[in-house]
């Protein structure tokens, strides 16, 4: 494949293995996609760990390079399984580290992950915005932003977790154009993360257009997605609630895959599935426990858009 064909769909990812997962009461304040869990904490944690490990195996079986880091739970990081919010990587050797809105999620940032990236991949620059938390300015990585790496556009739904000042800094440093809009769930609650309602692949985009109430802005978002030649596939609010928008396109041994939860895959119509599989194979992951925290497959997977360092022979 050419660089253009893999630019949107990385071959390698970072995932965090959770040993003490549980839905986070702090994030539930503005995440309407979280659900109440009644099972015992140890049972919930064990189920989430098993779901994560099975997902890693599924990704590796199709040739995706998965770098796994353990979270032993000692730092009280219930959402650590969602690393895409605190860092992102970009072609050209650039890494972003982000300010997190919930205090509990700020503990998820890990120096060992950044050290690994610098050791195994070519990293030239790290932009660390995390200090902006002291000024109550937040931008939760590729949760708050859905990035079109080909068209150089950052799609952002306004929320507590996407401050316009930080977004402007990111776009200046990384060379993206911001496209900002309001989006609400059927109860009128702002969508907390853009990646819940939108996924941008190489040849298609999934988006909950009906969650954008302003008709003119909705048309603009659709046009910006379509003008790069992508097939824009509209998702209903019900499909968004089933995490059909929380997916990520990855490159495996034989081509591109769309990693999404089994629940999300089941929510797609046959016609939508046909349009997606024209360019990417569906890769469903069973994540019923993890999804209780209000995130799904996309949130679990931090793409590595960096160039790997050559191995030095001993």
From TrEMBL:
Signal peptide: none annotated. InterPro entries: Amdntrnsf_FN0238. NCBIfam families: citrull_CtlX. This is Amidinotransferase.
